[in-house]
Inverse folding.
């Protein structure tokens, strides 16, 4: 039986020349961009103002911390990334970066981001950044991802921290509004990822990752997507109900959520043996949806 250590050793012997781009890809730029954007929104929605330099430093640290989580995730998931079409092009499966180098890279970035944020901005924001990295690596990646179909539900909390951290960088505390921002992303994550899992279920099955469509089937997954879409609709109205936003945001949220729920409903009513046309549509729109919801919150706050 070939051990994981032996496989790692063989891979390291066959290492290709790595580039800066390979190390940057370890940071999961697309995921990191969402963390950057929502943290910026958290900063600008906070009631206190920061010096531009500290705003830049806060965003940089949050970005590096998010990227560090991605690098450590790729180190741990090296055995399954090579089995899935959407992940096999990553630098570790491609033999461009060794798993240990990726781990070291991620750990160093995590430590640097937390230390700088704590020393330059405030310790509470640094603690939140540390906890978000810890949650993503140990709770989601190592504990939940390969053990339960609820992996993305609970693990989604990691991706919901950036706006809260951004807010904490500016204020040094957490109040009701940033918690609502957290809830929006937390409730958005399951329908977003389950839509992807519906048309990537064979890949997840090969990798033995117990995503909901693999374990419970497509019908159950589509019902859960519909339920979470409705809950998300309700949660995104909270900023208006609590007086944190105005009519511009409310109208925008109603329009965005109506289309989100429409896609979820069409997906629910689609046949299990079809090509699941609405799953890719919902997945792609969900990305635009989240950027739009947070953008309208910031725009509304400016008026």
């Amino acid at each position: 039986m070939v051990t994981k250590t032996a496989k790692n050793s063989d891979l390291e012997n066959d290492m290709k020349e790595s580039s800066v781009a390979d190390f940057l890809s370890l940071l999961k730029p697309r995921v990191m961009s969402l963390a950057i954007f929502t943290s910026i929104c958290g900063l600008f929605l906070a009631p206190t103002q920061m010096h531009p330099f500290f705003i830049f430093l806060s965003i940089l640290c949050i970005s590096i911390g998010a990227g560090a989580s991605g690098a450590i995730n790729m180190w741990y998931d090296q055995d399954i990334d090579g089995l899935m079409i959407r992940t096999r092009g990553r630098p570790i499966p491609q033999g461009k970066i060794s798993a240990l180098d990726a781990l070291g890279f991620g750990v160093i970035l995590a430590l640097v981001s937390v230390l700088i944020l704590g020393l330059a901005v405030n310790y509470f924001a640094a603690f939140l950044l540390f906890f978000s990295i810890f949650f993503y690596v140990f709770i989601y990646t190592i504990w939940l991802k390969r053990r339960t179909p609820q992996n993305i539900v609970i693990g989604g909390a990691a991706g919901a921290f950036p706006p809260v951290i951004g807010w904490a960088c500016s204020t040094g505390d957490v109040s009701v509004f940033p918690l609502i921002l957290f809830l929006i992303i937390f409730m958005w994550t399951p329908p977003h990822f389950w839509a992807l899992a519906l048309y990537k279920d064979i890949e997840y099955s090969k990798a033995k990752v117990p995503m909901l469509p693999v374990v419970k089937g497509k019908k159950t997954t589509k019902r859960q997507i519909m339920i979470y879409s409705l809950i998300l609709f309700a949660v995104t109205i909270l900023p208006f109900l609590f007086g944190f936003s105005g009519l511009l945001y409310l109208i925008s949220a109603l329009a965005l959520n109506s289309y989100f729920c429409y896609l979820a409903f069409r997906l629910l009513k689609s046949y299990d043996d079809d090509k699941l046309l609405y799953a890719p549509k919902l997945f792609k729109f969900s990305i635009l949806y989240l950027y739009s919801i947070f953008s309208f919150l910031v725009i509304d706050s400016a008026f």
